[in-house]
Each structure stands twice: as structure tokens, then as C-alpha cells.
Amino acid sequence: MTDNIMSVLSIVIMLSIFYKNRKLLKELTKFQLLGAASCYLFAILVTFVFVFYGGNWVAGQFSNTIFNSIIFIAVILIVLYPTVSILNKLLHKITNGILPKDKKEVGSIGSLSKNLVNCDGLIFSLY
Q1: Is 67 in contact with 59 (CB distance < 8 Å)?
Q2: Of 102, 125, 107, which Cα lies nearest the Cα of 21?
Q3: Are 95 and 32 in contact (CB under 8 A)?
Q4: How confident is the model at residue 62 (pLDDT cuts 50, 70, 90)?
Q5: Total domain count, the chain
Q6: Which domain holds residue 60?
Q7: Sign of CA dihedral 86, 91, 93, 99
Q8: Which of 17, 22, 32, 125 could form a disulfide with 28 if both were Cys (CB 3.0 to 4.6 A apart)?
Q9: Cα–Cα distance for residue pair 28/101, rounded to 1 Å
Q10: How many whole angstroms separate alpha carbon 27 and alpha carbon 19?
């Protein structure tokens, strides 16, 4: 039952994202849409393979459940960072800069340090 609810919820979320970005999608040619869709599918496939098989293998080496979960989350983060970076570069090249919408690099050191500075300022202003 939970699987069905999650599947329907995923489809609804995808449709709402497409609807919200319909103007942006109309700017793309059919070849660009096909290329972007294939890049997303390939990124999902690669991430799934590395997280499912690699993450389970690495996490299975430890008997402690908490440490096992921490290692599995670390594997997910380690796999997602290069996958998203490569996906963003491919989308930028295929769509001539239309996608990804946000030009900030995901997880770059500059944006990370800027966010930490902003976070520190917020924390200090709360005290």
C-alpha cells in the first residue's frame, strides 16, 4: 500500500515540476529534450547501480547498524556529488545554457564557504 502511495506521489510531483517549468521546456528543441531526458535517465541508472550495489557492499562490511547506516548515507553523498556535477555540465552543453536553471555549481567550495559564513552570521545574530 505504501509503495502505491509513493509511486502516485512521485508521479504527481514530476507532473507539477513539468507544469511549473513548461515555459522553459518550450524553449528547447526536440533533440535537446531527448538529450536532457536521456541524461537524466542515465544519471539515475548510474546512481542507482553505485548506491545499491556499492553502498550495500561497503555498508555490509560493518556489523554495527548505526555505523552501517552512516556509511550508507556517506556512500549516497559521495555518489551524488560527481553524478550531479556531470549531469549539470552535460545539460548545460546539450541545451546551450538553458538548463540547469540555476547556474551555481552544486556543492562548490565557494558556495559552501559563503553559506557557512551566512549561517554563522545568522547564529550569532540569534544570540
Answers
A1: no
A2: 102
A3: yes
A4: confident
A5: 1
A6: 28-126
A7: negative
A8: 32
A9: 13
A10: 14
Cell of 46: 548510474
Domain assignment present for 4: no
**Do the Cβ atoms of 105 and 89 come closer than 8 Å?**
no
pLDDT at 1: 85
Q: Is the pLDDT reported for residue 69 higher than 60?
A: yes
Average pLDDT of span 54-69: 89
CA 84 to chain centre: 6
Looking at residue 59, its pLDDT comes to 85
pLDDT over 70 (residue 23): yes
Q: Is residue 54 part of a domain?
A: yes
From CA 47, how far away is CA 52, in angstroms rounded?
8
pLDDT at 103: 52
- Is 37 a member of any domain? yes
DSSP designation for 95:
T
> Across the chain, what does the average pLDDT equal?
83
What amino acid occupies position 42? F
Q: Is the dihedral of CA 36, 26, 24, 6 positive or negative?
A: negative
